[in-house]
Amino acid sequence: MWKGLTFIFSNMIHVSEVKTDKPPTYQNELHRQVYETLEQLGIPFERVNNDPALTMEDCIAIDERLQVKTVKTLLLCNRQKTAFYLFVTPGDKPFVTKHFSHTLGISRVSFAPQESLGELLGTALGATTVLSLISDTENRVRLVIDKEVLGYEYYGCTDSTTTGYMRLRLADVLEKYIPFTQHEPTYIEV
After folding, report:
1. What is the pTM of this model?
2. In 10 A of CB 114, how many CB atoms?
């Protein structure tokens, strides 16, 4: 019994107290752009610093600290790697490529290669976020949002790094941030 408890605690990541200011330093250019854009658009946020979070399981402690459900954000592509989709869905919802592709009426998709994350969105593996769309100035990525996310009051996501997560009002993301990036979301039920 004690081994099980030790195992549970050893898998918990460290999460800081909630902050409402931008980080004192930025990890990369996109990180800086995200916070400057939020400030420019007057979008308030709450954020935490955390140990690297690479899976949805890692986000459990983050969700508890921020009192939010972190979304899962996936960069997908067709076989030819000529069409890219940024898919936002509830973090605890299984992703089935067949359902996604069928709903959009497109050929089956797969996860985009890691190089595409950097090239198209300026992010590393595990740091993909809708906030990264400011890097896609040529609109090469189609934004697709699971309609289930529309039921959230708050939007939980990375701040474009694996060591920072934030909580934003969903209305601010949909009505201010996404339009600023000049992307038009497609809403689907899967």
Report:
1. 0.91
2. 12
